[in-house]
Amino acid sequence: MNISTKYGPPEATNGEPLSCTTETTLKPEQLLELYRYLKLTRLVEERLVNLYRQTKVVGGVFRSLGQEATAVGTAYALQPEDFITPLIRDLGAVLVKGIRPRDIFAQYMAKAWGPSGGRDLNIHFGDMEKGFIGPISHLGDMIPVMTGILLGGRLKQKNFVGIAYIGDGGMSTGAFHEGLNFAAVQKLPLIVVAEHNQYAYSTPTSLQTAVKDLAEKAAGYGIPAYIVDGNDVIACYEVTKLAADHARSGGGAVLIEAKTYRRKGHAEHDDQRYVAAGEVEWWEKNNDPVDRFEKYLLQTGVTKDKLDEITVDVVREIDEDCAWAESSPMPEAEQAAYNVFDNSIVPPAFRPKVLE
Amino acid sequence: MSTTVKKEHKSARPERGGQATMVEAIRQGIWEEMERDPSVFVIGEDVGAYGGAFKVTDGLIDQFGKERVVDTPISEGAIVGAACGAALMGMRPVAEFQFIDFISAGFDLLTNYAAKCRYRWGAGLPTVFRGPCGSGVRSGPFHSLNAEAFFLNTAGLKIVEPSTAYDAKGLIKAAIRDPDPVLYFEHKKLYRLPRLREELPADDYIVEIGKARVARSGRDLTIITFGAMVLTALDAAEELEREGLDVEVIDLRTLAPLDKQTILASVKKTSKAIVLHEASRTGGIGGEIAATLAEEAFEWLDAPLIRLASLDTPVPYSPPLEDYYLPQTKDVVAAARKLAAY
Amino acid sequence: MSTEVVMPQMGESIAEGTITKWLKKVGEKVERDEPLFEISTDKVDAEIPSPAAGTLTEVRFKEGDTVEVNTVVAVLDGDGSVPSVKSVAEKPAAVEPPPPPVEAKPEPPPPPAPPPPPPATSAEPTVEDLRRTKSSPLVRKIAQEHNVDISKLEGTGLSGRVTKNDILSFIESGSPTAAPAPPAAPSQPTAPAAAPTAPAPSMPAELPAPPPPRPQMGDRVESMSIMRKKIAEHMVLSRRTSAHVTTVYEIDMTRVAKLREKHRDSFYERTGTKLTFMPFIFEAVNKGLRKFPIFNAQVSGEQIIYKQDINLGMAVALDWGLIVPVIKRADDLSISGLARAANDLADRARTKQLKPDEVTGGTFTITNPGVFGGLFGTPIINQPQLAILGVGKIEKRPKVMTNSDGDDFLAIRWMAYFALSFDHRVIDGADAERFLAFVKEQLESGDFSV
């Protein structure tokens, strides 16, 4: 099977600061919207880190710093009726699908007004209307679930595609294999975006898989593959557009490998002791997706003032949404007992009284 | 923007004995067994250079090399299966699940291969499957599991869960030396709890698998529990003592096979029992213990058996929800009061 | 409005963190999200941003301190401690009323189906009935073994259930601590029992024990000796049994002292034992007990038993505790007999050579804290006796006296305080005064034959 590398990463940087793919079908206002999502993703995460250190977020915080372009660019290529199921590092895709920062903040802060009412954390929730299926912590499990979404869509005679995000670690699971194999056999319009960010928690890709490019794995399922520069938001957009067209037109499942780099640890409590000295700093200096896109935009005539204006607006939105989330009460304790089953049939799971 | 600073990498060989938290005690135990027996090796996700998600295996790779501290892909099936295969070859693998929640991805090999091997063809598998379990740490539905009930109904798996640093070390060493598969659950809330820091003996010791511990002796009623709930039970017992109630607390330590002797002796003495556990109530180990008492201590019972456990729900994330979900000290105190007054 | 800054939990199992650096000083202003301090934990080192804007008013831990997560480490006083909802409200476009989250606010579910009501027919026993008549497997087993009808006992458990303790104490006592259920229709009052053995009716119900103290580092812990445990039980029992009242008299012992001085040497030569103040006091008490027999009595239920013999207990302090040997039939003894008996018992108490019957059967006790210098105490009655006399230090004191001309003068006299503790259940204050006044009169008269 063929692996398309048209949107792959550049061979070498030869010292020139990187920009983005110049050939694009995106309109100027779409480019600015993409920029806004990139900044929103990064700044929402920064706010989450502060909330975590201020003990307002009681669970972990998982950053996508340095790889935001993959989530934002790929999701931006979808239609409103299309579905995504992201990984923890795909906050950008979740925001592009229309989930508001305030839901993310409330969810992280375990608040009653969060979409799961405090029952689950971070982006572990869903919104069928917006085509967002939240993940669980067990990696790989969402591949067969998205396969089922698409199977259901076909049975209901609906024509939409779905992106299931996976990483270099999650691809080692049994569930990944079983789900993708089934989707491929069924020629379902599944787009697997494999984010090759080089670390699964502390484990480097070399201990995860013997292939060089994750895209090689597509051959085992008989599906086409693309390699894309995951830090080039335009390339991510364009390659997903191609993949989505392929899937939507009956071509079946595809695999996109996005080459990127995870600049933070697995979570905020991870000190990245396993990372070689200077590696993170190199990526920060030479291959930051936001820097690259800013450079591209400035090259195409967008003014610095325009970009600053967008950033100010993003900060305003974050301030407002964060304040809203912080003003939410914590959930009522008794809510813990509800909604295991349909409570009109099975009563809530209250603790039985002792010797009453 | 706040920064995060890399820690100085500490890989010095731990002391033998001395003051230790539970996480240090487990590490000492594995370390000593690896020194004692070259067939012992560690396998799991991020167990090498990173030292495991909870740093249980911290430093082992520097001492024993990557041949004996094997980092795996995210593949619980591969971890369990490979541990079984290596055990067949005479090795003694200590396999880590990053969180016990992920044991589900290795469930097939654990319950169908590991558990049945000796029974089918006489091939015992000296394997240890360990990892952090337990709730109460705001980790939500996928990082808070207490998994024992999934495996109690699988013949062929021993299950242990310590509640003290001493037992943690003694049990991991006993598990490694055991000829059969042992699931070794570590409550993550206890790993670094200052209250559990204690002086460990410098000499080699084990805590026998299959033996419960009387964590506190008393005459009025018995609380049978294990893991982090031992602390809840002891706190409750202390509060009840002020009201003149003398509560016995049994720390099971081993969940399979159950130490019926200790449980029965205690309940025959006190005639009243509460079974307390952190996993959901329905289908939990509490039912098994209550049934055993009803069968084998019926004539000694002076009150109904009480089960106190978590709600029959997933583990919720938000603090008020999780606190409501888990049995709290006050719940134990209230139940004990009622039972005493029965 | 102030904001508390806490030690964050950097990782699920992290229990504590060390403050490595304060980036702000008390009194300094800090912006929200501005770095406030640095910490180090088992997993990671991190800079902690301020949770709010304001002034740092309090720093509770210094650099190098290790504190548990969620401990308050600093306090901010400030302008913007909590993100103001008001500022959001000013931009109404941005806020909508909180949506009722689909999952969090389910439609009020129907209440769980109540258990079916018990059948109305009275033939079916209620849970309460079953508890009373069936009790528990254990109690049924004990009842069968001892041939006891559970339904005839009154229980202290739920619904009046007979508990394990109820039936065990019923069997042990041979008669119920919890009285049997009264007959449905008593026909006539029952006659009082001839030989009552029941415990005092005034015994209060057992109170919950206070929490026992816990040893601290460096404390020494040792188990009580059997003697100590017995003393402890005995003392507490006494305080719970009797209504203790103590009255104190000062008695002039000068005449007794003179007698003692006069006869000291000859007495020793004659009897081989030392002449102390005690035999005189014993004799005075003997006379008092004969005159006021209630002080030589015991309470049994609702009856008072006046003892025939006067058996004087005398408390002897030992290095390892306390023992009260008894001088049997003390009023049959002369001063020398009393002196010999007392010294002999005390010597043998200190060498552990007392016989069991020499420490039982006392009817009144005398204790002598004065040998150590004590002026007076409030002794605890030695059950089942009704009174105890404590003799304080006998020493020379200035005393105002009056001569035959009616003139007052200061005299140096041998004085001592006598403290009598008595059981006010059966002895009233006036009786105690009369008794002690009588003893005083005897001692001050110095009318003894040595």
Describe the overall structure.
Helices cover 38% and strands 10% of the residues of chain A. Chain A has 10 helices and 10 strands. Chain A is globular. Chain A starts with a strand and ends in a 29-residue tail after the last helix. Chain B is α/β, with parallel strands linked by helices and 342 residues long. Chain B has helices spanning 22-36, 60-64, 76-88, 107-113, 117-121, 148-152, 165-177, 229-241, 260-270, 285-296, 319-325, 329-341, and strands at 4-5, 18-20, 40-44, 69-71, 92-96, 128-133, 158-160, 182-187, 198-200, 213-216, 221-225, 247-251, 254-256, 273-280, 306-310. In chain B, helix 1 (22-36) packs parallel to helix 7 (165-177) and helix 3 (76-88) runs parallel beside helix 4. Chain B is globular and about 60 Å long. Chain B starts with a strand and ends with a helix. The mean pLDDT of chain B is 95. Chain C contains 9 helices and 19 strands. The longest helix of chain C is centred in the middle third of the chain and has 18 residues, at 254-271. In chain C, the strands form 5 sheets. In chain C, strands 9, 12, 15, 16, 17, 18 and 19 form a 7-stranded mixed β-sheet that branches. Chain C has a 4-stranded antiparallel β-sheet with strand order 1-8-6-3, with no helix packed on it. Chain C has a 4-stranded antiparallel β-sheet with strand order 5-4-2-7, with no helix packed on it. In chain C, helix 3 runs parallel beside helix 4 and helix 7 crosses helix 9 (429-445).
Sheet/helix structural class of chain C: alpha+beta
How many alpha or pi helices of chain B?
A: 12
Shape of chain B: globular
Distance between the termini of chain C: 87 Å
Mean pLDDT across all residues of chain C, rounded?
81
| Largest interface, counted by CB within 8 Å of the partner chain's CB | A-B, 58 and 58 residues
Percent helix of chain B, as a range, is 25-40%
Number of distinct beta strands of chain B = 15
Query: Would you report the number of β strands of chain C?
Result: 19
* Oligomer state of the chains in this structure: heterotrimer
